[in-house]
Amino acid sequence: MSELLKALQNLPPQKVKKHYVTIQGKQYQVGLQKKLEVMRNGEENYMIKPAKFGPEIILKPQTRPKTQYPVLKTATKGYFFHDGDIHWPNAVAEGGEAWLIERE
After folding, report:
1. Do residues 77 and 53 both lie within one domain?
2. pTM for the full model?
3. Is 76 helix (H, G, I), strand (E, B) or coil?
């Protein structure tokens, strides 16, 4: 049994695995959790923010869509539809519905 313990003590120390991510063309060493997070979201969605104790890897801010879509609302002058089907307008008159863009 002592031979087994001696053999275990004489084993070389295990190497510590290092994890790297490439952000904005540069490679950075990070922990396993950060590496998995970057892999999940994609390296192109991260940026480097200068910090007091070295660069910080953060998610890029999400851009809001600029496209606004019209919504069918009651208007002063608008369409009247056959059986409520928007593809079959019957008449244009006051108090009907129109496609309007909502402002936020």
Report:
1. no
2. 0.53
3. strand
